[in-house]
Amino acid sequence: MNSERGEKSLDVLIRGMNPVLRGGTYVFCEIPHGTSPPVAAIAMFSEEEGVTIVLERTDAEAHRLDPMYPSAWITLTVHSDLAAVGFLAVISRALAAAGISCNVFSAIHHDHLFVPADQGERTVEILRALQLSPFPSKAIQ
After folding, report:
1. Which residues of 122-132 are buried (b: 16+ CB within 10 A; e: fewer)?
2. According to the model, what pLDDT value does residue 3 have?
3. Hey, is 7 helix, strand or coil?
4. Cβ-proximal residues to 3 (8 Å cutoff; 6+ apart), any chain
5. Phi and psi (nearest 5°) for 118?
6. Within 10 A of 79 (CB to CB), how many other CB atoms are there?
7. Which of 22, 51, 72, 105 is deepest in the core (most CB within 10 A)?
8. E-strand stretches of the chain
């Protein structure tokens, strides 16, 4: 078990986020409770109404699942602490200002952004500009 903690400093997180656009188009799909998700699912969240899974569009089609929200997947490669405050708020604000919707999955080591499939490259550009801005943490004030 890795006991290393992630970064909490907002400025360090923003400066070190180094967004990586992954190839492919990813979709959100719903499966009923008690159904095993396809092995190819990269994320899963159980809600009262059903189970949401995220997987590559081709895998969803192969399993005859109804795809929603075709997305580009961007990983923020900085090791963020799950208790970090404000990091995703700064990112959300920058993307909202650009008119880009974003769904986030925070895992133990990294945060993963799912944005409209045709906005992946633009999102990475916005995040890289934010990284280089003189006072990135001021973006939430």
Report:
1. bbbebbeebbe
2. 46
3. strand
4. none
5. -85, 5
6. 14
7. 72
8. 19-21, 26-31, 43-47, 50-56, 68-76, 103-106, 111-116
- Residue among 95, 100, 94 at smallest CA distance from 140: 94
Q: Is residue 1 classed exposed, middle or buried when 0-12, 13-18 and 19+ CB atoms within 10 A define those classes?
A: exposed
DSSP E strands: which ranges in 23-133? 26-31, 43-47, 50-56, 68-76, 103-106, 111-116
**CB 114, CB 103: distance < 8 Å:** yes
Residue 107 tokens, joined? 């895992």
Q: Which two tokens stand for residue 7?
A: 């970064």
Beta-carbon count within 10 A of 5 CB: 10
Report pLDDT digits (tens) over 80-89.
999 999 999 9
Pair of tokens at residue 5: 């903690």
Torsion, CA 68, CA 126, CA 135, CA 13, rounded to 10: 50
Residue-level pLDDT at 35: 87
Provide long-range contacts, Cβ within 8 A and 24+ apart, for 12-16. Answer: 12/78, 13/78, 13/80, 13/84, 13/87, 14/87, 14/90, 14/130, 14/131, 14/136, 14/137, 15/131, 15/136, 16/77, 16/78, 16/131
